[in-house]
Design brief:
- By secondary structure, the protein is mostly beta strands.
- It has a single domain, classed as monomeric porin ompg (Porin, Beta Barrel).
- The protein contains four helices and twelve strands, in the order H-E-E-E-E-E-H-E-E-E-E-H-E-E-H-E.
- The chain has a twelve-stranded antiparallel beta barrel.
- A hairpin with a 3-residue loop joins strand 8 and strand 9.
């Protein structure tokens, strides 16, 4: 009888431990490493690689869009090809090539994403997911011979830019939300522009069809000083706008496909934070897409 009680006690302990394990499962707040313009706290996983391609077309409407330009599809505004490699359970290294959509082109990106905390079910000590992302981007385009242009580079330092982004995300039932405080700095800027800018981003994800289709929306508020805004309007007739993205995320067994609509022409934070000059209200938003596919590199 004593052996029976011992066996039952052992089974009960194992069952309780398993129940506690299940009760504290990690929460996947978003399905991929980005929404549209905003990065998420999700990482690839140790030994895996997320290969993704993002493509932004030209303006869908407005003076540079419409039927004559096939609603922007005639123009490949910006293209990014990225390799996100999980070197640890919570650490990604990023290598990417970005076309660029303005004077600063042929961009090479090296980045690192570190997940600091992952939201857990039924664990009040881990109520949200937190990650930090840092990148360095080098523009390889030929330097402009005219002075005071975005690409009037004099040395390697002028060609570099950096982004430091904190990512705070939480899932409430089916709704996922996040904040992206972001600091961007660059080695060169024209005389009446700012070398460094702060932006506050945010994103939401709402399932439309369970495990098949999600609505994703993100937005960045860019904090540019008024003197810079006035100078651009006076000298170049340029007005800046905050990037707003709306997309539909389609989940398949092996891929994640996202159809994007955004007024930001460029894909990298290093570029769309200082250079979003197109407006949803004027029809200056564009089709875009992202295809993401994971591969196992080692076990």
């Amino acid at each position: 009888m004593k052996q029976v009680f011992t066996l039952l006690a052992g089974i009960l302990i194992l069952f309780t431990a398993g129940a506690q394990e299940n009760a504290k499962k990690p929460v996947r707040v978003f399905n991929s490493g980005k929404t549209i313009n905003a990065r998420t706290p999700e990482v690839t996983g140790k030994g895996k690689m997320d290969f993704n391609v993002t493509h932004n077309f030209g303006d869908l409407a407005g003076s540079n869009g419409g039927v004559k330009r096939f609603f922007g599809l005639d123009n490949a505004a910006d293209i990014r090809i990225g390799f996100h490699i999980g070197v640890g359970e919570h650490t990604d290294l990023v290598f990417a090539r970005d076309k660029g959509a303005s004077l600063v082109q042929q961009n090479y990106e090296i980045g690192i994403k570190q997940q600091l905390m992952q939201q857990m079910e039924n664990d009040p000590s881990r109520p949200l997911s937190i990650a930090v992302y840092f990148n360095n981007v080098i523009a390889a385009v030929k330097a402009n011979s005219f002075p005071d242009q975005d690409n009037s580079f004099k040395n390697l330092g002028d060609r570099t830019s950096n982004v430091l982004q904190l990512i705070l995300a939480k899932r409430f039932g089916n709704l996922s939300v996040q904040l992206n405080p972001t600091f961007m700095t660059r080695g060169h800027a024209i005389s009446y522009d700012q070398k460094s800018l702060f932006a506050l981003g945010g994103a939401i994800k709402l399932p439309l069809v369970a495990n098949r289709l999600n609505l994703v929306v993100d937005y960045f508020k860019i904090f540019r000083n008024q003197a810079s805004r006035d100078s651009f309007k006076l000298n170049d007739n340029i007005r800046f706008y905050d990037p707003l993205g709306i997309g539909f995320e389609i989940l398949t067994s092996g891929h994640i496909f996202r159809l994007n609509f955004t007024n930001s022409t460029e894909i990298l934070e290093n570029r769309f934070i200082p250079r979003t000059v197109t407006s949803w209200g004027k029809g200056q938003f564009r089709w875009g897409f992202t295809i993401s596919r994971k591969f196992t590199l080692w076990r």
